[in-house]
Prior knowledge:
Elements: H1 36-68, H2 78-86, H3 91-100, H4 106-119, H5 123-147, H6 151-163, H7 165-171, H8 177-196, H9 200-216, H10 223-234, H11 239-250, H12 254-268, H13 276-285, H14 290-302, H15 308-328, H16 343-356, H17 359-380, H18 390-400, E1 406-409, H19 420-427, E2 435-436, E3 439-441, E4 452-453, H20 457-461, E5 466-472, H21 486-493, E6 494-502, E7 505-512
Parallel strand pairs: 1-2, 1-5
Antiparallel strand pairs: 3-4, 5-7, 6-7
Helix pairs in contact: 1-5, 1-6, 2-19, 5-6, 5-7, 5-8, 5-16, 6-16, 6-17, 7-17, 8-9, 8-10, 9-11, 10-11, 10-15, 14-16, 14-17, 15-16
Amino acid sequence: MATPNGEVHIPLPRRVGQVETPEPASDATILLPRSPTEEEAERLQRRAAWQRRIAWGAPALLTLVLCAIGLGGPGLWADELATWGITTVSWSELWRQLDGTDATIGPYYVLIRIWTVVFGDSDVSLRLPSVLAMAGAAAVVGRIGTRLGSHQIGLLAGLTFAILPITTRFGQEARPYALATLAAAVATLLLLRMLERFTLGIALMYGAAVAALGLMHLVALLLLAAHGLAVLLTKPKLLWRWTPSAFAGLIPLLPIILIGRRQQGTQIGWIPFTDLHQIEAYGLEFFGGSLIGGAVIALGVAAISRERGAVVAITLGVVPVGLLMALGAVTHIWQQRYVLYTIVGWTVLVGLLLARRGLLAAISAMVALAVLALPGHVEVRKSSFRYQDTKAVVALIERDFRPGDGIVYGLKDRGPGVLNRDVVAHYLPAERRPTDLLMDRPMRTDGWMVSSEHQDVAARLGETQRIWVLRLGEYGDPLDDLDGAKKDVLKERYDVTQSWWTTGYTVALLTRKDPV
């Protein structure tokens, strides 16, 4: 290229496609310090998350510990022996049994049958599902309280639930009531979510919780009356959405409901009608003691307000109890344990009240409740609180047992005398059992839960020198009202050598009279 002054410049060739980029600096990233406001917000978030975890975790852990203390102490009482007995039969026999009796809690029996296949049928193993269910219910109560406003409400409600003696009592029982309490707590938590914001997902989960509740215990479905009233009082427009959600949970239960109606007479026909005595007993015994019960009811009543959480809690605590008592006046149905789940409502009310009173008042109240609960915790671990002391029965027989001894059972004793054979079968090894002299067909055979006995009592007794008699209930004369021909034959041939009363049982040892 020539310039005007005659100079010539030759340009260098270009490099096509190559882009020169500056080398990155070794420390090019600059970290800007977070503002104090952001750090404080993050710290508060972490703290709130831990508080929420503690609100449900601490009650669950405390419940677990309290239910584990003395878990294997008292022996299985009659209803628990029915649970054990169903685990001893084959699956085909189990279905036949449920067709004849106890279909309403058949799903629980199926669950416990699977459980014992894995974990065995010891007293502790049979009761462990209830322990876990009660711990889960305590956690859900904590979540309910948190949902209602703060972790303080959840923690106080959950701890109140944990320290109630009745929580431990049924957390240590091989029956479905603890699992029904867990399902009721979950359904109540979902109801609160539904009241805040209705979605199809929440509705489906609520229906599933209702189904689980009914599968564990049909009578517990009185919960729906409490929930329906709570919806009507707090958010009436939701009623047309809540109702299909509730009925959706009832659909899987229809077969059980139909079969249960057919079995009603044999299952609960023994329950007395509700009277003033039962109403009084509710106040004195339901929470595990009159002192702790009175305190919880007083605190709960003081917490009543028009707030959504208080309305849900009080309807849950009161409505199922009132309805079942009213039904119990005209039919055989009132049992306190059938409405065990209502303690969820009362404990949430206590949490709501104490959370408003400040830290010092809340701590003082919880300490006072714990002190009032102590006598109840001692009582519920006694065999007398479980209606029958089965371990005392077998201890008496095992102590004085001799080879060649026989045994006769009272099948029609007051209460479930048909289960008397389970006491010996569960606790005494075969080589230490008296011979069952009258049995023809074993229990839980061919769809019959009750064993059949030979009618010729005298022939079956033969020349047996010593006979044990086991009766459910306390009898001054151990042969009094003994069913069939047993009483007459035994009085004619045997003398009552010794008799004992244990909690719920009469045990007697008879020896053969000397021939004249």
